Amino acid sequence: MRRALTAVLVAGTLTGPAAAPAQAQEYRYWSFWNGGGKDGSWAYATQGPATLRPADGAVEGFRFTVGADSAAAGKPRAAADFDAVCGRTPAKDGRKRIGVVLDFGTAADAPGGERPPKARTACAQVPEDASAGEALAAVARPLRYDSHALLCGIAGYPESGCADQVKDPDRGSGSGSRSSSAGSGDGNTHKADDAHGAGGGPSAGLLGGGAAVLVLGAAAGWQARRRRG
After folding, report:
1. Which site from 66, 126, 137, 190 is most exposed, i.e. has the minimal number of CB atoms within 10 Å?
2. Hey, what's the torsion of the CAs at 166, 169, 174, 177, to 10 degrees?
3. How high is the pLDDT of residue 61?
4. DSSP for residue 187
5. Please, are residues 189 and 121 in contact by the beta-carbon 8 Å criterion?
6. Is the torsion defined by CA of 209, 214, 202, 116 positive or negative?
7. Could you tell me the end-to-end alpha-carbon distance of the chain, in angstroms, rounded to an integer?
8. 144 forms bridges with which residues in the sheet?
9. How far apart are CA 113 and CA 158, in angstroms?
């Protein structure tokens, strides 16, 4: 199961909301979102940050959340507003500006003993061919990865764990659809950063749908039994 989950997370290729079965297993993880246009809305990413190469003027969002599928994943609570994030960062030849929105989630979704930092935004000015993962690395170090190059922590949060299963599905108000409409009044700050996106470890895809993870795990088990047979 862990191997199947890691494969999906690193690939970052699952697209769209997955229909979760009743009482589907929930995971605690960093979800990845694309800015949806001038209205400041968010759309669940259809590519992982390692493969997505946004154009100048794009806004990418990361939200620490708990959910069983992409439909229940909590969206960043700040708007996807490029001007608000990068308006003070002048354009430069040969580089592009990517707005990065970091939402560290709610206290209810935090791992035991940890408190989520305040949400913040940053303008990553990176080479024109940089990926979304490289833009993230430019403004949100330290990033933490597991042995499979899976992105586990952003800006040092959380301190440990990586796409862990949530043991208590009734842990509290949580994120997902229950809090995705919450306001963004948790002290967002504007930060312009001209660092290059190189380094900071590999950029890995994020969870696309818990239900699909379960399906892939079952398929992997069936294929293993077939090979043994």
Report:
1. 190
2. 110
3. 98
4. T
5. yes
6. positive
7. 20
8. 153
9. 10
How far, in Å, CA of 108 to CA of 148, rounded? 28
Q: Is the peptide bond before 117 cis (omega within 30 degrees of 0)?
A: no
Q: How far apart are CA 120 and CA 46, in angstroms?
A: 23
Q: How confident is the model at residue 68 (pLDDT cuts 50, 70, 90)?
A: confident
The string of DSSP letters for 114-134 reads --PPPPEEEEEEEETT--HHH
Q: Using one digit for the tens of pLDDT, what is the confidence trace for 81-91?
A: 999 999 999 99
Structure tokens at 150: 């899976």
Residue 64 dihedral angles phi and psi, to the nearest 5°: -80, 125
pTM above 0.85, yes or no: no
Cis peptide before 158 (omega within 30 of 0): yes
Exposed/middle/buried for residue 148 (C-beta within 10 Å: 0-12, 13-18, 19+): middle
Tokens of 16: 């769209």
- Per DSSP bridges, beta strands 164-165 and 27-35 are antiparallel
Q: Which two structure tokens, joined as six digits, stand for 59?
A: 């806004």
DSSP E strands, the chain: 27-35, 42-44, 59-67, 95-103, 120-127, 144-145, 151-153, 164-165, 192-193
Question: Phi and psi (nearest 5°) for 89?
Answer: -105, 110
Helices 2-11 and 210-228: crossing angle in degrees, nearest 10, is 120
